Amino acid sequence: MFKLLLIEDDKTLFEEVKERLMSWSYEVYGISNFNKVMEDFTKIKPDLVIIDIQLPKYDGFHWCRMIRAHSNVPIIFLSSRDHPTEMVMSMQLGADDFIQKPFHFDVLIAKIQAILRRVHDYNNEPIAIKSWCGATVDFERNSVSNDLRTVELTKNELFILKQLIEKKNTIISREELIQALWDDERFVSDNTLTVNVNRLRKKLDELGLGKYIETKVGQGYIAKEENFL
């Protein structure tokens, strides 16, 4: 049974979402003290975190940063804010998805199921290490390293890189990547993929590899390796 941590200060909404998630056989936990969110996170060790942006004391972005400093656990943001920068910031901080309030519960469930299925299936794959552009991609440690340094990737970033380098020198459409990532593209903002790819490319820039992930306007993305054949 998967454990979900719901970081939401609206008690009515918390109880409603908790009840419905429990009907899907999830264990759902809340926060006992919003000044000490990380204490509950460390104690519960959730399989997925659902977090509101507007919270007492510190906002959801703060706690996302804190969680990402210690864990790659999947994170879904819930927010009543409708400005695109909120979604962009959540993705840049390492969130896996963003849902705007009010939301359809079926959409939340679909996203939770897709993320947990992807992470669960991914973690059950045999340990794999790939070589790409002179770098080592370690799928067990969620990292890419070369002689310069090592960078850590989120599950989404690593999954995108995996799709691209498995079909290196071949254009993969945005639709194909979205479907592979989230199973059902109807529930995904096109901007979400853009943010994830840009964040991946920025991290690869630290290794001098960002230039090998190219955007093909109107077509998709391609991982090139022509200099390392």
TrEMBL record:
Residues 127-225 form the OmpR/PhoB-type domain. The modification 4-aspartylphosphate is found at D52. Its main location: cytoplasm. It is found in: Cytoplasm. Residues 127-225 bind DNA. Residues 3-116 form the Response regulatory domain. SMART domains: REC, Trans_reg_C. It holds the Pfam family Response_reg. Keywords: Cytoplasm, DNA-binding, Phosphoprotein, Transcription, Transcription regulation, Two-component regulatory system. PANTHER family: REGULATOR OF RPOS (PTHR48111), SENSORY TRANSDUCTION PROTEIN BCER (PTHR48111:SF27). This is OmpR family two-component system bacitracin resistance response regulator BceR. It comes from Metabacillus niabensis.
